[in-house]
# Entry
Amino acid sequence: MDKAKLSKKYQIVVPKEVRKKMGLRVGESVSVYSVDKERAMLVKHPKSYADALQGLGKEVWEALGGADKYIKEERGSWEKKSV
# Structure
């Protein structure tokens, strides 16, 4: 485990091993979240939120048999209700 020390301006240097594992580069944005009184979490911001969210929840659609099947069944239920 690497250590970091707070400067007079409350700044830290992210240890090399952590930068390498997270793929952090100069100029990238990160967020720091307080977990509790003794721990914080460093989270790397994605370059594109759209790319980062792509495919999120795809297991739900797969469990329903795919989006096309679900849409077809849903539209079929509308037709039954209107008759």
